[in-house]
Design brief:
single chain; globular; binds tryptophan
Length: 452
């Protein structure tokens, strides 16, 4: 056991920005806009907001409560409150972090590559061929490694000196850039039809269970829930933090950036009459389609915009890099804190060894986009939703008096009864329902990968 005192955030702002940094990432920028368009515009938005409020927020608060209360990494936190039998759930969290960062870093590598192209050469030519070039092969491996290197370097710097400092510098910059891009996009000729496509409700779609499944999956991925990332960050908090307020700010910022990203993406696409292209490439079920929506269509749009397109493209991909980096940090931190707590390793050793392992695990995803797609499905549909189910049952039913812990630092108990009820009944019911849909789909995708 390492006996060094546990690290702490230096300020409340530092924690909030780091947690927002975890939540805001690649998931907000393209997964959200694409799904919104695909599943009924404002109808999807309404369901996604509903899931975020009724299911996401209670689980977020549960993670913060477990982390701050135990001052431990996920595995130890669950054992602390639930006994040894709950350790395996924590191990599932760590495994999820492992898998997600392995492929997330590959995608992040593409964004670095595209940002460099925007800056130094511009886009142009065949955007599909370009995407295949960027996304598959040794180059993809190289950029994946470079991104992982940046991530591990920050995490090795510690909670205050690495993670918090990065978030304090980068997150305000990200907000400014997204707002700036949304204002710019509002003045493009495609703004009107772009907004209409994005925000017009197709209320037939809202009734479909499938839309609910996607809205739930998106809410959990985007809020970084279901694998102990928020738990781990909260374990570096002091007793005086106001957890309900923090979770509202984190979720609000996450939803806000996702919404703004839609206000950027759709006018850009429609400015050039490319809507057909985005629906055509992205209208498939596979995540390859999602990936295509961003990495194929937008560079096409930037290319058509001439000189302005290079600047807008550079800034756009810079936003993606920043979002991806601060999210990747939180994924790595889950694994690192578990290794520090569980194996007694020092931070430096834990960070470099686990990052090396994840970099290796990501290599197949950099050579075969279908592998990446299946890793994403398994991680978000099975691990995250299953993990969130376990979490809600744990805090709702197993943990002794979570309400006493969550109220520390607040001045009342008014809403906590409702929180407990949500965790006990509503959240598990929604998650079981969604999992019943998601498990067979995901297993079929895995079988498809091996079946050819
Ligand atoms: N939320 C991030 C995004 O939207 C990704 C992410 C970071 C994440 N940490 C996580 C997802 C933990 C699930 C769990 O891109």
């Amino acid at each position: 056991m390492a006996n060094a005192p546990r690290e702490q955030w230096s300020s409340r702002t530092g924690f909030v920005l780091a947690a927002v940094g975890s939540a805001v990432g690649l998931g907000n920028m393209w997964r959200f806009s694409y799904l919104t368009a695909e599943y009924g515009g404002a109808a999807f938005l309404v369901l996604y907001l509903g899931v975020t409020l009724m299911v996401g927020l209670p689980v977020m608060l549960a993670e913060l409560t477990l982390g701050r209360g135990s001052q431990r990494s996920p595995v130890r936190a669950l054992q602390h409150y639930g006994g040894a039998a709950w350790g395996p759930l924590g191990a599932v969290f760590v495994a999820a972090g492992f898998v997600i960062l392995s492929y997330y870093s590959v995608i992040a590598g593409w964004t670095v590559r595209y940002a460099l192209s925007a800056l130094f050469s511009g886009f142009g030519g065949d955007t599909v061929a370009r995407f295949n070039d960027v996304s598959v092969g040794w180059d993809a491996v190289g950029f994946h490694f470079a991104f992982m290197l940046a991530t591990v370097w920050i995490v090795a710097g510690g909670v205050k000196g690495g993670i918090e400092r990065t978030a304090i510098v980068l997150m305000p910059l990200l907000f400014l850039l997204v707002v700036g891009l949304a204002i710019y996009a509002s003045r493009l000729p495609g703004a009107g039809p772009g907004y209409a496509y994005y925000l017009e409700a197709d209320f037939d779609a809202i009734l479909s269970w499938k839309v609910l499944t996607h809205a739930a999956g998106q809410a959990f991925f985007s809020l970084s829930l279901g694998m102990g990332a928020m738990l781990t960050y909260a374990s570096y908090l002091g007793r005086d933090a106001h957890l309900p307020n923090e979770s509202l700010i984190i979720a609000g910022a996450d939803v806000g950036v996702a919404f703004l990203a839609g206000l950027v993406v759709f006018p850009l696409i429609f400015a050039l009459g490319l809507s057909g292209a985005v629906i055509g490439t992205a209208g498939t079920e596979a995540d390859i389609g999602n990936v295509g929506a961003l990495f194929i269509t937008l560079p096409g749009a930037f290319a058509e915009m001439g000189a302005a397109g290079r600047w807008v493209g550079t800034l756009f991909f810079a936003v993606l890099i920043v979002g991806a980096l601060t999210s990747a940090i939180s994924l790595l931190e889950v694994v690192v804190s578990a290794a520090m707590d569980g194996l007694g390793w020092g931070r430096t050793r834990a960070a470099w060894l686990s990052a090396a392992a994840m970099a290796t695990l990501g290599i197949p995803a950099a050579f075969n986009i279908e592998v990446l797609d299946v890793m994403d499905k398994v991680a978000s549909n099975l691990f995250l939703l299953g993990g969130a189910l376990g979490l809600s049952l744990f805090v709702g039913w197993r943990m002794q008096d979570p309400v006493a812990e969550v109220t520390l630092g607040t001045d009342g108990v008014r809403w906590f009864f409702l929180w407990r009820m949500l965790l006990r009944f509503v959240v598990p019911a929604v998650l079981v329902f969604v999992l019943v849909q998601a498990v067979p789909d995901t297993l079929a995708a895995v079988a498809g990968l091996f079946g050819g």
